[in-house]
Amino acid sequence: MKKALIVYGGWEGHDPEGVAKVFSDILKSENFEVTLSDTLDAFGGDLSVYDLIVPIWTMGTLDGKLEENVCNAVANGTGIAGCHGGMCDAFRNSTQWQFMTGSQWVAHPGGGVTYKVEIDKNTDSPLVAGINDFMVTSEQYYIHVDPAVKVYATTKFPTVEGEHSSNGEVDVPVVYTKFWGKGKVYYNSLGHTSKIFEIPEAKELMRRGFLYAAR
After folding, report:
1. CATH number, span 3-213
2. For the purposes of burial, counting CB atoms within 10 Å of the CB of 42, is it exposed (0-12), middle (13-18) or buried (19 or more)?
3. Where in the chain are the domains?
4. In sequence order, which residues have a C-beta less than 8 Å from that of residue 89 and are 6 or more positions away?
5. Which of 190, 193, 179, 192 is nearest to 78 (CA)?
6. Model-level pTM greater than 0.90?
7. What are the backbone dihedrals phi and psi of residue 139, each rounded to the nearest 5 degrees, phi first?
8. pLDDT in tens, 164-192
9. Among 113, 125, 122, 129, which residue's Cα sits nearest to residue 177?
């Protein structure tokens, strides 16, 4: 049986406990043994025993030794998968974390807006096979992205007018993967609260992402 560690907390506006419950249920349905922790101290243990780490922690501060421990575990083969601010707006001062996870949130113009998630039609990857484009009403994440990532879904900006609009239309990743040493990294920018995963496509993308990233 594979083992997953879910670490949740940080800014309560992102419903970390609710998202952790959804993700725990998904993983248990896929026969993972799930450990839930509401403290970052969980990153200080022997992480090599886990096949997957799922961070759900927005706007926190991560001790350098804990950061190094997680990054080393992923480099040695433990997968990491997460969503929204819980993974890629987690630790704004931790550049190694950002390097490993592949992006950093910088804006969500307009706050809650309705936008389209566009699935890459030029791939036969099982991560998105059979999933069609779908609409979401939530924060539309504008992220600064590692050029090494492999993108599977995007969203088009601008949806609402702002200073960014003078650049014209751009596609910003919603779903991507990358490698960190021997480990796989999966990110999905959806997930402002657990309600997002009532959208079947959003939930299915996370399920597939967990299975992809796990050792």
Report:
1. 3.40.50.880
2. buried
3. 3-213
4. 58, 59, 104, 105
5. 179
6. yes
7. -70, 130
8. 999 999 999 999 999 999 999 999 999 99
9. 125
